[in-house]
Amino acid sequence: KDGAVKVTKESVAPPVPYKEFDRLVWAKQIVNRDFNYTDISNDGPVFADFVFKLANNNVPRYNYLCSIIGYALNNYRTSSNTRAIIINDEIVSDLPEGGSGKSLFVKSFGHTRILVLKDGKTFNPNKSFEWSDIDESVDLVLLDETSANFSFEDLFSVITDGITVEKKYADKYRLPIEKSPLILITTNKPVSGYGGSHKRRQYNVDIHQYFNQKHTPMDEYGHTFFQDWNVEEWAKFDTFMMQCVQYYLQNGIVQPPEIDNKYKDAIRATNVTFVEWIYDVIGDFQCFTPTNTAIQRYKDETGQPHLKVDARTFKRYVKTICEIFDYDFKEHRDSG
Prior knowledge:
single chain, alpha/beta, 7 strands
């Protein structure tokens, strides 16, 4: 409420009062509290401890999360530097538990920037009026818990070119990338898609499952985040978030040693069941195997006797797995 905070590589400056600020500000972008920069070196915010636990108490992974926060809060957008942030569970499972803290982590951004929340299970970027609640004052859009059928490719143009907004009884208009919000995605499974086009448009974040339905942040900290904080805790939170912006300006996105990177890439390119199967049996395919024989073995050993998978798709899956795990792929055709 007391002004605009300027963050640079060198410092987090005191707020500039709005009457001295030489730019216009959206009224709804004004955070409804004063900014009090405070020393958090010895007595840090509970939110920083929460982030550290999401990083499995691993400093490089924690630094990566801090740079992701800074990237999300810094709203300088161009077609070359803009990527979606995809928040995954660290452990891939066909029966995800949920409650790992992914949504809480992302929703924290909405206490500094304008964040619009959308149901990831019903979201369809091609549907009329899907973006009707978006204007140039919105900084972030969260697609929360996307479904297994979610297509990241449908967001390619949104991420690189901006959003076309359609409202009822009004003409369509386009928000250029410089004025479009950043896309954030939480999901229980890796988002499908592998290759340069996908990687250029996303930052993947693995969340360690320290928290779950049996052990929540409430259990750990004894209070509800954001709702039960006093002025002192809010000051620590604001200081931490601005320091994350400063950290991002200093270092860019800091890449950690990603957990099971190749394994996750394989799942994005194919599916969990196929990867788990091929991971165990790939040593058996060291001489030419008829494609239909391999497909039948896949169906039998994964308990999917009625699965429809054509030879072309199966071969593409195997070829991609070989590329990711550094195997040589060889094929041979004969009359059989």
